[in-house]
Specification:
The structure holds two protein chains of two kinds. Chain A is built from nine helices and twelve strands. Chain A is of the alpha/beta class. In chain B, helix 3 packs across helix 4, helix 3 runs antiparallel to helix 6 and helix 5 runs antiparallel to helix 6. The chains are: A alpha/beta, B mainly alpha.
Chain lengths: ~290, ~260
Amino acid sequence: MENAPRRPARAELPPRAGIGLRAPHYREILETRPDIGWVEVHSENYFGRGGQPLHYLERARCHYPLSLHGVGLSLGSADGLRQAHLVQLKALVERFEPALVSDHLCWGAIGERHLNDLLPLPCTEATLDLVCVNVVRAQEFLGRQILVENVSSYLQFSDSTIPEWEFVGEVARRTGCGLLLDINNIYVSAINHGFDALRYLDAIPAHAVREIHLAGFDSNGMCLIDTHGKPVAGPVWNLYGEALTRLGPVPTLIEWDTDLPPLAVLLQEAAKAQEILNQWTLETTHALAA
Amino acid sequence: MLSLREQQAGFAAALFNPAAGRSAPGIRADGISPAVRLGFYRTNVFENYRKALAATYPAVEKLVGSGFFAGLAEEYIRRYPSHSGDVGRHGEQFGEFLRRHACARELPYLSDVARLEWNIDESFNEADHAPLALERLANVPEGQHERLRFLLAPSCRLMSSLFPVHRIWQMCQPDSDGDGNVDLGQGGADLLVRRHGFHVMVETVQPSEFAMLVALSTGHDFAEAYDIAHGVDGGFDPDTFLQKHVLSGVLVDFILPADAWV
């Protein structure tokens, strides 16, 4: 705590594979210091005032670049951002100086009520205006760029007029925010709603993408559900390869939240992503050399 | 066309009131009815909250079994909206909910077990604080100790119960070596929950000691707090109290009026 080793100043995430830092793995990660590019945590899990979570995050931050990933900012709430939440997030950002700060393109609160989930938005001009206002406010309040992540969805709204892939790109264009492209979410939504995942990738402004997420999904028999409780599926790995040919090497996170496996399993998944990142890097090097 | 605000309010209402047959407006069917699609979200939302409650209240879950706990959680989720973007805060009223619940007739101690677990959860995430430097105490001018207003470590929580709630909680811990029986007739308990390092401890304290800690934590100076503790137990020893709770890191700071230093 007081005598923790000095940690490096804020730095870019390297274009390598990273993993989510979860409480059951704290000790093992700090003792074994696996060769991963960076770590990510859910911001809200560190909203406490002290104790073990912040202590371990402080220590992890000394050894790895950090990405702070939120689930509670509710950028799509019709009644705007929650000031109390922003204040807590800002304190965390100032304390840890993360490389990136992100949240989702969704809503999760209305009036006094939080729903604590990533709920879908109708893709309309009115929603686009609202989301952009909220993203700009969040960036102004935090004094830095945030990344916005596309979510999985299990329904669509009848008043939607803009394809999601255009909506996502437009938010980045209008606000200057970065994009956190979740490849699994694109795949899940593409299957659920029957659109072409490659068309989605083609529409994304490559320069805005600063982080990628990979995760596992489940099926309830009618719909694919984004559960983060399984290895990354084969088709999602394929889509990841397609994404990299469009985007170049981008810092890539293996997300695993439910039924958390041993650290070794998580590291194997990260190594798989790293291998794909390496291939891409080699290919470009060769292409440039030729 | 509905405004986004109306749409989101309708979505939230339908999510928590499926029995009323409400379906959120404006959802496309696309081969699956809007009510079923909404149900996918309902399942996820309720599962998130249930898992968060189970993470905070493992002893309550162990006492009632996971099936009954899931039912309690569902009722709680419907009746107690979350007011924070941090799902871990949603369970704050769970003890109060259990106190009013019909199951309290058979399990009157359950709500106190929940209150204890909430205190443990809060203590776990509270701010760290350095212990009180003994020389500061030694430098207090003669005769002024009575006017000290002590501060408890941020991670301290005080609670009392009519039941031996610490024994019940202990019995539910994974490392418990008890026989699974607690004599409810052994009476209540005054508890101090506090964190030592990263470890949250649950300690029983004497009624007079508890009264003293409560008095100090609510802003009484040492003399006033002593009067209260002495009223509980005429044999209460303030010196022993002070030594114990300064050394153990419960009393971490104090203030003294400026005129006391001259």
